[in-house]
Design a protein that fits this description.
With 188 residues, this protein is an alpha+beta fold. The protein is built from six helices and eight strands. It has one domain: Alpha-Beta Plaits (2-Layer Sandwich), CATH 3.30.70.
């Protein structure tokens, strides 16, 4: 069962608590950030839009970092879909960083090896998958959720239903087609 993250940018206040919790729980050295809050801006004055996004490894279905690694140091666990790194095998070439569209893998200056979010599965400090991740647990606005993708997809559908039922979607029909069984993941 594939695990991952759900992030609600409308709730994020850019407090950086998730970054600190991640570094603390996983004992990440100075430098790399396994989770980073960034501000994305668009438009031009006076019509500027901005949103905060808490970025980490997305534990991709077909992880490009895994494919780019010439020594097989990056693997995807079959049982939960978490993409992990074997630092003893990593040669620090950086190919994974170039391949990742989210800039998740980061080389450490201390060891010269790649590190990234491991879904709080640091050896000796593994969090059970039914518990919140460190970043999720500390988030004061509950902007970050983790768990099986089928459960996270339900959160997204509920949020979409709220928007359709609210005044934000005035003029649109109050109809949702449940085509997830045929066209997308997260089906019941």
């Amino acid at each position: 069962m594939q695990h991952g993250f759900y992030f609600d940018h409308e709730l994020c206040v850019k407090c950086h608590a998730c970054e600190i919790a991640c570094k603390t729980w996983n004992e990440v050295d100075v430098g790399p950030r396994w989770r980073e809050v960034v501000k994305i801006e668009s438009g031009s004055y006076p019509n500027v839009k901005a949103m905060n996004v808490s970025m980490a490894c997305m534990h991709c279905g077909d992880a490009p970092c895994r494919s780019a690694c010439p020594v097989g140091a990056i693997t995807k666990r079959v049982e939960d879909g978490i993409v992990v790194v074997d630092e003893s095998t990593c040669i620090g070439c950086g190919f994974c960083t170039w391949a990742c569209p989210f800039n998740a893998p980061q080389l450490t200056s201390m060891v010269g090896k790649m590190q990234k979010c491991n879904f709080c599965q640091t050896p000796g400090k593994e969090r059970p998958l039914d518990m919140p991740r460190a970043c999720e647990e500390i988030c004061p606005t509950s902007a970050i959720k983790s768990g099986p993708l089928s459960e996270l997809a339900k959160l997204n559908r509920e949020k979409a239903a709220m928007k359709l039922g609210g005044s934000a979607m005035q003029g649109f029909p109050g109809l949702m087609v449940d085509a997830h069984q045929r066209f997308g993941p997260g089906g019941d």
